[in-house]
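Intended use. Records like the one below are meant for learning the mapping from a protein sequence to its folded structure. Do not use them to infer anything beyond what is encoded.
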Amino acid sequence: MDLIDRLMKDDKFSSFNLVGGTALALKIGHRKSIDIDLFTTSGFNSPEISNHLSENYNVTRIQAINNGVFCLVDGVKVDLLAHQYPLIEDVEIIDGIRIISLMDISAMKLNAIYNNGTRLKDFVDVYTLLESFPLKDLLAASEQKYPQNNISMVRNALLHHEDIDFNVPVDFIGQDIKWSVIADRLREAVNNPQKVFIKIPPLTQKLMETKPRNRQKPKGPRL
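Structure written out for the chain above:
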């Protein structure tokens, strides 16, 4: 958080907003995420940003491309990119951190699955977002932000799991969720896109899993 705060206060990055898994985790707290993804809707001078980072931050690795800078700062992966697609909703400021809306995050997550589909965390994030919005709303956001994408293919990409890299773990907060549970929810959402799923509290879920069946009362006198 200290690094995010510092980057947010740096005038060089005033047009950049926090996106991705860390933005979502800060909003809903479903999993741990330390990578910092900062996107801007306009182009920027990559060499200038790269030099500024190298001169003012503890950078151990850095790469600059057209409209993109990728680096390690204090051991944290930081990506700065020009993502030139319109914001669906206004940027929110939470504790001084500029964060894109849940609708924008949702659209970007669906776009990532549609174009890649290898990152388990993207499917996990959509699984969690379905506890706040029905899939039809997420698809509408995706269509608004990325009108060039075939929305039917975007929806069907949620059912294509063969390319997921399960060797990269997801660190949940409060509970562990089996992949079969995630896959079942995604399939149900595709079949019933108007449904908003109910989150089972971790303690309740654990009690349900461990509650013995047909338990008999012990014999003996009541004390």
